[in-house]
Design goal:
Bound molecules: 4'-deoxy-4'-aminopyridoxal-5'-phosphate
Largest sheet: 7 strands, mixed
Number of strands: 12
Order of helices and strands: EHHEHEHEEHEEEHHHEEHEEH
Strand order of the largest sheet: 2-8-7-6-5-3-4
Strand content: 5-15%
Radius of gyration: 21 Å
Structural class: alpha/beta
Helix content: 25-40%
Number of helices: 10
Oligomer: single chain
Amino acid sequence: MSRFLSRALAGLKPYVPGEQPQDKKYIKLNTNESPYPPAKGVAEATYGQAEKLNLYSDPDCLLIKRAAAAVCGLGTGNVSVGNGSDEVLAHIFRAFLQDTGVAFPDVTYGFYPVLCSLLGIKYKTVPLRGDFSIDVSDYEGIDSAVCIANPNAQTGVYLAPEKVEELVLQNRGRLVIVDEAYIDFGGSSAVPLVKKYDNLIVVQTMSKSRSLAGARVGFAFASKQLISDIEAVRCSFNPYNVNRMSMYAAAMSLEQDEYFRSCVDKIVFARVYTATKLGKMGFEVLPSRANFLLARHSGVGGEELYEKLKERGILVRHFGDERIKDFVRVSVGTRAQMDEFLNAVQKILEERDAEG
Ligand code: PMP
């Protein structure tokens, strides 16, 4: 820490992203990326814009707002675009949460508390139930905004749309943020509800189901009034926040519905396949509607399994948080990648049995 750092940031613990190793080739099942390449035409659209990099990108992000609004059945005035949904979340937190504070589950996306610390926002955590589900009645009468991920980050557990609506209804005087980074892998989106409720913001990303993690494009969907506040923050921070290559890549990708659906179908199939196999090996696997599985085995600790898989060239994610420290989180890759992962797990368990 330098002697110049703002005092307010002295204790800041930055978000620790999953490893992106550059040294050797791993089977990467640690950051919930898609194992499939971007849709056809995306690379060409990107190269085409690379020739125009002397020019700024469109600060209104109209091309991509139009494409996203069309997919969602909303108007462009209901959409804000960010450099990844992480940035969208930062705009939202900055715009709305300083006065009210925010509540989120004790097990969820680790970026929420980091953003709160960065922006001086008070937060409280609400424990998930014993089965790792969100019970919306736990948020009734809460005196702050609410932010949930659905399906929830790290667990994959999903909250049904009527429950999301209940959450929005019981907090009409407060903002409800629903982060749908993983919604395409088996959930029903709350986006249609933004036409009905002016206290709801839905956040989505192109990073997972659209195979564009490296392009960094995310969205907020909400009423025109909320979006205009978010846009004010965005333009006060970085009006050219989405670069022109990513903008065209994302717009091209949003047009390719068939490819998107085929990738999602393959991932969902591989998820069910992997969860079943892990169950047969004695793992407890949380019911996931996302592109990852959170699983634990009584015979091997989460950290140990992570280490042993890494030695075998397979990266998964381990979190030290008390409630999930026994688990590993495994992103769902291709069927072939999942078979390699399952074989490695089988061998690790056999070795342990032989030792013990
Ligand atoms: N929300 C959740 C729940 C996530 O897991 C992630 C991915 N780490 C994000 C948002 C951010 O994704 P991106 O910035 O790539 O859009």
